[in-house]
Design brief:
Number of strands: 7
Number of helices: 10
Shape: rod-shaped
CATH topology of the largest domain: Cathepsin B, Chain A
Length: 291
């Protein structure tokens, strides 16, 4: 019992690491219907065995020495020890605390608001509760809140928990008379920072002219990349090439024009010859008729 009363040393690990974490696709859909300032976070997949709230805490703690069973027992002890405090705070929202504690005593049982509040004191951290706007009404506004430890405990970190469901909304409603209610918790983590390779790429893109290590008059000497210019002879040769190409182009165009002109004259002569031939034949026909 004394062990359960000993405070835990809890430091939240709130950055998503794709090497050890996996995103919960279903929870991602529910997150999209939550507050817009939460949409950038990533819901992390945890077991759906009824201890999901405690799994969410442990994956944020990143400490394998603590189990979900220990966290559940610690939560029960906290609720019983400070029963009056929690009852005055949340009985009007969740219901009688004595009935809630009986449910918490059953392992692999889905948790509620009382457990979230008690875990704040057990862990010594704030817990931001995010509730999706699915079947949401004004009485659920308290679910979107930042819960803090009891006044005697100071918070040293903060984690974010999403109220979710093991199934997507359509299937969840189908088995519950078209009513949606959560039965799962997942932790929300921030996206990871760019990898070293990404930073290297950024350095390459922002590459500047290097500086020499040696100093002259205590001033860094900038290495200047020489800009070579063409010599006058090279430019002269290039100009000659341009002139030659231009001359050849004009010569080709002239030859084409002369060819077209000669072709037109030839066609004209042929047409004149055909006309003279038709006239001679016509004259011959008239002479035959006269004979």
């Amino acid at each position: 019992m004394e062990l359960m009363m000993t405070p835990l040393e809890y430091r939240a690990y709130t950055v998503f690491d794709e090497r050890i974490h996996e995103m919960d696709i279903v929870a991602k859909q529910y997150l999209e219907s939550a507050s817009a300032d939460m949409h950038h976070l990533i819901p992390v997949d945890v077991p759906t065995d009824g201890n999901c709230l405690y799994h969410s805490v442990l994956i944020s703690k990143n400490n394998s020495t603590v189990t979900t069973s220990e966290l559940r027992v610690r939560t029960i002890v906290e609720l019983i020890t400070n029963e009056t405090f929690y009852s005055n705070m949340y009985a009007n929202v969740v219901g009688p605390i004595d009935i809630a504690v009986k449910g918490v005593c059953k392992n692999f049982t889905y948790s509620e608001l009382y457990e979230i509040c008690a875990l704040c004191t057990v862990l010594g951290c704030n817990i931001r509760s995010v509730y999706p706007e699915t079947n949401f009404h004004c009485g659920m506004a308290v679910m979107n809140n930042i819960f803090t430890p009891a006044p005697s405990v100071a918070a040293n970190s903060e984690i974010t928990i999403l109220w979710s469901h093991a199934w997507d909304e359509i299937h969840a409603r189908a088995v519950n008379n078209n009513v949606w209610s959560p039965n799962h918790f997942v932790p929300l983590m921030s996206p990871s920072m760019p990898h070293e390779s990404d930073r290297s790429n950024e350095l390459i893109l922002n590459h500047k002219t290097p500086e020499k290590q040696k100093l002259k008059n205590n001033t860094p000497i900038q290495i200047r990349i020489p800009e070579f210019q063409d010599s006058p002879n090279r430019r002269f040769r290039a100009d000659n090439n341009v002139i030659t190409d231009f001359t050849e182009s004009i010569s080709l165009k002239t030859r084409q024009q002369n060819y077209n002109k000669g072709k037109t004259q030839q066609e004209t002569r042929l047409e004149q010859e055909r006309n003279r031939h038709r006239i001679r034949r016509a004259n011959q026909t008239e002479e035959e008729h006269q004979i």
